[in-house]
Structures are given as structure tokens and as C-alpha cells.
Amino acid sequence: MSKIRLIALLSGPDRPGIVARVSGWIFERGGNILHADQHQDPEEHIFFQRVEWVPTNSDSPEKCEAEGNAFADFATRELGMKVQVSRSDVVPRIALFVSKIPHCFHDVLLRAQAGEFHGEVACILSNHETLRKSAESYGIPFHHIPIGPRGSEERENSENEQVRLCREYQVDVVVLARYMQVLSAELLQRLEVPVINIHHSFLPAFAGGKPYHQAYARGVKLIGATAHYATADLDEGPIIHQDVSRVNHRDSVSELTRRGRDLEKTVLAQAIRWHLDSRILVYHNKTVVFH
Amino acid sequence: MSKIRLIALLSGPDRPGIVARVSGWIFERGGNILHADQHQDPEEHIFFQRVEWVPTNSDSPEKCEAEGNAFADFATRELGMKVQVSRSDVVPRIALFVSKIPHCFHDVLLRAQAGEFHGEVACILSNHETLRKSAESYGIPFHHIPIGPRGSEERENSENEQVRLCREYQVDVVVLARYMQVLSAELLQRLEVPVINIHHSFLPAFAGGKPYHQAYARGVKLIGATAHYATADLDEGPIIHQDVSRVNHRDSVSELTRRGRDLEKTVLAQAIRWHLDSRILVYHNKTVVFH
Amino acid sequence: MSKIRLIALLSGPDRPGIVARVSGWIFERGGNILHADQHQDPEEHIFFQRVEWVPTNSDSPEKCEAEGNAFADFATRELGMKVQVSRSDVVPRIALFVSKIPHCFHDVLLRAQAGEFHGEVACILSNHETLRKSAESYGIPFHHIPIGPRGSEERENSENEQVRLCREYQVDVVVLARYMQVLSAELLQRLEVPVINIHHSFLPAFAGGKPYHQAYARGVKLIGATAHYATADLDEGPIIHQDVSRVNHRDSVSELTRRGRDLEKTVLAQAIRWHLDSRILVYHNKTVVFH
Amino acid sequence: MSKIRLIALLSGPDRPGIVARVSGWIFERGGNILHADQHQDPEEHIFFQRVEWVPTNSDSPEKCEAEGNAFADFATRELGMKVQVSRSDVVPRIALFVSKIPHCFHDVLLRAQAGEFHGEVACILSNHETLRKSAESYGIPFHHIPIGPRGSEERENSENEQVRLCREYQVDVVVLARYMQVLSAELLQRLEVPVINIHHSFLPAFAGGKPYHQAYARGVKLIGATAHYATADLDEGPIIHQDVSRVNHRDSVSELTRRGRDLEKTVLAQAIRWHLDSRILVYHNKTVVFH
């Protein structure tokens, strides 16, 4: 399918007629809407929409780019919306941050290889050398950036390096695939792209370190995993996706850890997929996911 | 909320601009769209839409009725769609068909009582007296209609009686809550309203009688339940909803039966809810469920 | 099946040979083991067992009672275990505590009526009159005990009345079916029987009041329910069972509440069933559930 | 943990005292039972048991081997059971049969690498060259065996080669990881080891080819995967494990296929794990899984 599609995500103050005006604008300019989904927060009176269409001149990247810009202009000025438009022929670029734990690392790369994502892994950044050889077998550039203690000059240097590489590789999103370092508020800001994290518990239960140990100690009957956007408040960012798995009294911490790996992989992969497909809008520390 | 809403379900040949024309029509006449969801079958080129809006004069049932008719006219003539419009202030009426098994019967009535359905149970028809007393404690009229053998005059009489009562009670949908009789093709046609059935297996596995016995004999590790519209082909109608529950080698047929009851209740209730909320479109023996 | 079965729950310090000695004791006295399941906590070195058998003279309640006592003696003295033995022909008696919310109330009573529990509801105690008529339609005695403010004489009187009625009805377990009052530590102690509560969240997330509001505010993608034994620390008791249901950004608090009701019903019912079948052992604020 | 454990799987005609005699035999010879689980088929009067214990001299493979043999002798002669005993220090060897589809292939190998299985992949046999390079990056021998048409001499030769390699590598179990060839009854017999297959549907629904196409055509609301032992009757063997995933009208066949891959991976991995841990007994085309 060589036709370029445009995908717009809109949000802003709700008022009558937005759906009609958006679809009218597209239709009048010869576009064909493939999907349109919207949501209203009835208490906050906020309107959210995801609309995907084939514009006229759908074989010309330049003209599609111009049409996307025209739409953004229209929606901003005339509808008072915040808008983000993406083109289906532009493949988003991912920076994968990893440490030593390999399961999410392999899972993301194998899915990327299998074509499961509308995106490509541009580079891998790690605070350890452990996964270098594996990274190279996938043919993805691997950069080892040791992380110094908080507040040290070393730490500042490594953050500079992380920012530099993400820019160099023109990264659109950072994925923390069980990356065992907290990103500082400053680093998050400087990266200028969304950062997706996977936490190995059903948040808000068992935030912080060693969630499987916490789950074992409390004697819960389900363990979970949560994919969320990273924010300055650790484990407090907007939740994208969650899932759980049943456990019982026989399951040791190491069994919970093993079972949890399957959850972490599928939950993180789903969050990445939705993000790359421009299906997620964030507001008030929550997400609207159009799926 | 005293404002009347209109809900339209459309389906028909896909072509550009339908979304824009539908939302434009509503907007120009002063309506405010609350929800709009659509789907295209990309192979069959069929367009489906559910749109829910507050028309002007939303406090007048008569004017809303007229507006719904005007919309139906527009969508039929100008868009070539099949349309069905319903008004939020009109409460659909259910005929509940039961036999002796009580769990779905109680479940539907308690949910209706709790306000979970946009609908009310108008009457209960049964081929046994078993549940009469319970039915009366819910304050719902109960009619005992014994069913004779197929082809007998008795059977014809009972079908006449079923049709007569459904008309008398102005029924909009029939729910078979573990009703242990097959409805003939002729009866289905004469009822002139949709009929929702609950089958106690994960269809198409274990169609026909005694599905829990079949599941036990095959040694499956999950049992299921399926809500579907009844058609002349038993257990072959369009599937609305399905769910499963994990079982193991320790579970006898009676344990499967007990576990299955919980599935049957929740799956049937969900199907009824979606139907009453005008969320379901049927085509090619499949369903589009806008939820 | 007229044969009486004995069910023993054992726990105590682990050491080699317990399984052999328990099964040997039963076998030598002519008993036939139907089920035996055990568990070791490998860190705490605690042994847990549930064993179910048909003793000789299985048609005599008196002789079975004596055999159960002999087993308890043996396991206590010779194996150093804590033991609890129950007879299959003795039906446990439940006191159901309710307030105004009806769904768990109806669910427990309908399941009891359908024979889903090895137990019977002996009485219903409520701090409101709301469910009296329904209770009476099930043929179960209903007692209205208004609850005064904490520390008041009224409160003391109502606790006295609750204790008195549970004794009068010879209650073996108390089930809080969305009973909207906290049981004081003193009352829990005086009741002298286990108390099962249903909390409408996935504990430890969203303990305390209004969990669906908390879940909505945090933007979680799954809601849950937790059945646990009530302890002096509210929502901190040993967890028996948990389940979750998927939700999304469209679900309002009232929709979460409706969806949650189904979870609360099935989770509470499962916990009651396991408790009545003598499948649960508590230690260190956790449960071992032999199922 | 250097202590050797013995695991016995028993099955045979049920009669009183088996549990006592098995545990007594182990205890008297100084063994310490870690886990014991049993099951009776109440209709067929068959007894099943899995027992895991540390024998005396648990640091000597030879003495443990002898003790296992002694147990097998005892259980066969004195209890009339079919027995299979395995030693925890003996690592089972897997032959992985693959074609071109990579997801189950990678999944099994990464899990093996991560230590998730009590077993090692000894060799990979494929009817295509596609996965050779990947296989070699895992350091596992890869053999390409083209498969001729049924009844041809070529086919006979390839079956001979498959049997020869499985013997040469001393394989204990064959895993068909989306191997796109049917194994003939004769080949299954000659392999002399169990063969585990993953079928990409919720059996018995959608047996045979293209199950995701079948699922799409029927309009089911859940898709599934089934791991089973391969038998001469295709897709009719004893079911080990099953799971499902929710789908809706928007999901195309290719989306079902992508979603299904996650199911196939986890369901197959679980079946392999249970098999390698000696947790599965087969009878009457069903499985008893002690987990």
C-alpha cells in the first residue's frame, strides 16, 4: 500500500461541532477518512480525537507534509486544539535504553525485526557492556555510557552523552527496557521526546524497588506489569497499559520474577506499538488510548 | 439528565465523505455529537457507523422523533445506508424466555432491577412452571407455555402464543436465558425482533447439546460461553460476546457446570447491555460491536 | 453420597516424614485418602497440609467425630502440628453482614440456594432496614442492628448484639457482603470466628474508602477486587483471592462501579467456597489455599 | 543446591493405601518428600501421583539412580503402577523442529538461554535453511532436512534422517515450534520420545490449516492457542495447555496472526516447562498436569 496516510491527534476545550468541522475540512479538500475516534472528558470538558485519512496527492511526501501542516494550522487556529500530525511514510526512530537484563531487550528487537512496530530501533544505549554482543548480532549500534552517582560530574557527562546520542540518531521516542537507572527530571526535559518505561508491578501497588519481593511479602494472588510515560516522579507517570498474571502460595520470588518477565514483555511491546501508531494522548497524568 | 439523545446505527457501501456528511448534517441542524464510532470492512467495502447526539429541542420527544426520522431519511436517500435510529427516552422491552435453570434468569432480573440495562423486562415466558414464584417476587408477569413435539399441533399453538404475547407486551428483543428449546426458523421470523441466546461453550467448539460433557471428554483446559443472535441454524448465529475460564484435570462435569454458570451470566448480560445500547450491527453472520 | 469424609488442615515446623506418618496413620486405621496436598515454606521451614479421607465407620457421625479427634490428638502430640478437623456431614453456618448495597447479598444467597456452597446462611445482620424484604423472600432471618458512632454506648450495644446473635445462630464464619462499617479489633476478637471481607480494589492498591474514585483519578487500566480475612488493620488482612477487569479512558466512575460489582461477586463467592471447603490456612498475614 | 532429587510419576488402578505406601517406602529408606500431589479419576478408578523427594546419598548420582530403580520396582510390583522416575541432575535434551516462522523458535531458545527450562536444546532440525544463521548465533547445531511428498522415497529418507539425528543427539523430547509438516504415525512411533506441538487455535475449534482465517470468517471474539502431544490424528492429541486473547471486528487476519504469536509463544513455553519438570501424565487422550 503506497498511499500515504496522515494521522492527527487533537485535544482541547470541548464544544459542539468539532467532529463535523474536522471531517468537513478533510472531505472538502478531497481526503478520505479511514478511522476517526474521539472522546470527551465529561467533567473536564476536554475533547480528544484521533483521525487517520488519505489526503489527495497521497503519493507525494511533500504535498502530504504540506497538507498535514495545513490541517494543524486549521485545528489550532479555528478549533483551538493542540495538534500533532504524523505521516505514515515517516518511520519513527527508537532509542532503546538497557542495562543487563535481557528479556525486554530481545523482545523489542525481535518484534521490530518481525515488523510488529511502525518504527525502527535506531540505537541502543546501556550503562553496561553486557548486551553489546547481542545488540550487534541484531545489527543495531550499541553505546556504553557508564552512569556516575547522582550529582557527580560523571553523571552530568553521561547525561550529556545520552542527550547528544539521541539527537544524533534523530530519535523520536526513548524506551526504557528494564533500564535500571532513574532518569532525572532535567534529563527527561532535555531529551525532548517521550520516554516509555516498564515497571514490574501493577501500579500504584508496589512502586519503587524490588516489586516482586514486595508482592511476595504481601501475599497477593496476582502479579502485574505497568507501562507508563516516565516523569520526574518515579513510577507516577501516566499509565499506558497494564496486565496481570495469577500466582499462588507456591510461587517463590524467583518464580514471580520469571512469570513477570512474560508480562513485562507483552505490556511494554503493546505500549510501544500504541505510541508508534499515534494512539495515545496524555492529560492530567492519565492517558487516552484510541485502540 | 433530561436531554434526549438520538442513536443511529448505519451500514452500507463504503465511499469517501460519509463521516463528514453525517457529522455535517447533525451539526448544521444544531445537534451536538457525543459519540461517533465507525468501521470499514476493507475487503467487503462496507461502512458501519454508530453516532449518538443531542438534537436541538432535546426536551421534546415528538421533535426528537421527527429529527430521528429526518436523519434516517437523509442517510437512506443521500448516503445509501441502512439505518436504525433509537431515542434515549424510549426504554426497550425484553421478553425473557426461561425453562427450569435459574441462574441466568435471576442474573438478568437483578441487573434490570439494579438499573444496569437501558431496558426493562416486560414479561417472562417459560415452558415450565418452575420459576413462576420467583418471577412474581420480581413483579414481572409470568406465562407458562408448554411446548409440544416438533410438527405437532400443540407446538403450533405454543408458537402462536409466544408470538401473541411478544406482540401484546410490545417486546423489542427476546432473551433466551438458558431456554431449553430450539426456536424454529418460522418462529424466529414471526417474532420480528432480535433473539439473543447464551450457549454454554466457546463456539464453534462444542456446539449442540451437553457442551460441558463434551469439554470434559476432550480434556480442554479452558471452558467458555458464547452469546449470539439466534438464527435458524442452531449455535451458528452471529457471535456477540465470548469469555472463557481456566479448568484442569480435577474438574468434574459438575464442577465445569458450576464454573460455567458464572461465565454464562456475565457473557449474556454484556450481550444484552450492548444490544440495548444500540451498539451492535450484524453482517455476514458476524457482528460489529461499538464499545 | 452418604459416606462421611474427614478433612484435616495441619501446619507446623517442617521435618522429614510428616507426609508418610499422616498417610500411614490414616491407612493403618482403615481410612481411604481421597485428596492430600501439602506445601512447605522453604524459608520459614513451615509445613502445611490438607488431607481428606473416608474413615472406617464412615456412616456413623459419632465414630467419625471420634476418629477426627483421635487424628487431631495424634497430629498435635506426635507431629507437633496445629490441627483443625472438619466433618463433611456438618454444614457450616454463615452470618451475612450487609448494609444497603444489594449485589453481593443476592449473589451469596442465590449461590447458597443453588447448592454452590458447603454451608448455609443462618442469619443476616444489617445496619439498615433496606434489604429486609429481600432477605425474607429468601426465608433467612434478618436482624436490623443500627450502629452508633465509635466509642459511644450505642456502638457497644450493637457490638454486643452482633456477638450475641452470632452465638445464638451458632455461626462458624462471618461474611461481610459490602458491609459498610469497620469491625473493631475488639469485635473481631469477641466473634471468635473468621470474618471474610470483600474490598473493591486490587489490594494493596487503593486501600481505604472510594477505591473506584481513586482508580479513576490515577488512570489505571485494570480495576480489581480482593477477598481477605478481616483483621484489626483495615484492608491489611491475609488475602484469599483477587481478580481484575480491563477498563479504559471511556469508563466513568459509575461504569467502574458497575463493572466492579461483577468482580466483587465472583471473588467473594470463591473465597467463601474455599473457606467452607477447609482449603485455607493463614500464616504471617498470608494464605495457603489448597485448590 | 547440589542435592539430587528424584521425581516419580505413577499411574494405575486406584485402591486404598497407595499414598501411604509410597510415602512410607520413601520415609523408611531415609528419603525426604518435597512435593507430593495425586489425583483420582473417580469414574475410571485410576490413580495418578507425582512425588518428588531427596533420597539418602543425595550427592551420589549412582546411588540416586539405584534408588530410583528400586522405587520403580516397588511401585510396579507391589502397587501395580506404571512408573517413570527422573533425576534432577540429568538435564533432558530437546530437538527443536522448525520451518521458516521464527517467533516460537527465538522464544524457546531465549528461554533456554535464560535458564527457564530444566532442559537444553540439543539440536535444531528444519525443512528450510531460513533459520540457520540465527540458530548458529545461539550456538546450537542446525540440520536442514528437506521433506519430500508423502509416500515418496525422499520422504522416507528424510524421516530416516530425523530419527537418526534424534538418536545421535540423545534427544528426550521433540518440540514442534511452528514446524509446518505433519509427522506421520510411523515417524512418531519411530522417534520413541514424546512430541509437543503448538496449534494456533483454541482446539477443538479451528483444527487443520489456517485457523486464524477460520476464526476471522466465523467472527469469534477470542482467539486461542493450544499445546498438545502430537499423535497420528492431527490436532487430536492430548491437550497440555491453552490460552486465549480477546479480539474484535477491527482485527484483520494479519492482526489476529500477530496477536496469536504471543499466545503461541507463552502456551508452548509453558507446555515445554511442565513436560521437562515431569509434571504431565497422559491417559485416554487427556492430560493430568500437576502444577
Task: Provide structural commentary.
- The structure is a homotetramer of 291-residue chains.
- The first copy, chain A, has 291 residues and is α/β, with parallel strands linked by helices.
- The first copy, chain A, has 2 domains: 82 residues, ACT domain (Alpha-Beta Plaits); 197 residues, 3-Layer(aba) Sandwich (Rossmann fold), CATH 3.40.50.
- In chain A, 34% of the residues lie in helices and 28% in strands.
- The first copy, chain A, has 8 helices and 13 strands.
- A 7-stranded mixed sheet of chain A has the order 7-6-5-8-9-10-11. A 4-stranded antiparallel sheet of chain A has the order 2-3-1-4, with helices on one face.
- In chain A, helix 3 runs parallel beside helix 8 and helix 7 packs across helix 8.
- The longest helix of chain A has 24 residues.
- The model of chain A has no long low-confidence stretch (mean pLDDT 96).
- At the A-B interface, helix 1 and strand 2 of A face helix 1 and strand 2 of B.
- Read across the widest sheet of chain A, the strand sequence of neighbours is 7-6-5-8-9-10-11
CATH class value of the largest domain in chain A: Alpha Beta
The rounded distance between the terminal residues' Cα atoms of chain A is 21 Å
Radius of gyration of chain A: 21 Å
Q: Describe the sheet with the most strands of chain A.
A: 7 strands, mixed
User: What is the strand content of chain A?
Assistant: 25-35%
Question: Any idea how many domains of chain A?
Answer: 2
The gross shape of chain A turns out to be globular
CATH topology descriptor of the largest domain in chain A: Rossmann fold
- Estimate the mean pLDDT confidence of chain A: 96
Number of strands of chain A: 13
Identify the biggest protein-protein contact and residues per side.
Answer: A-C, 30 and 30 residues
CATH architecture title of the largest domain in chain A: 3-Layer(aba) Sandwich
Estimated structural class of chain A: alpha/beta
Helical fraction of chain A: 25-40%
CATH superfamily of the largest domain in chain A: Formyl transferase, N-terminal domain
What quaternary form is this?
homotetramer
Low-confidence sequence ranges of chain A: none
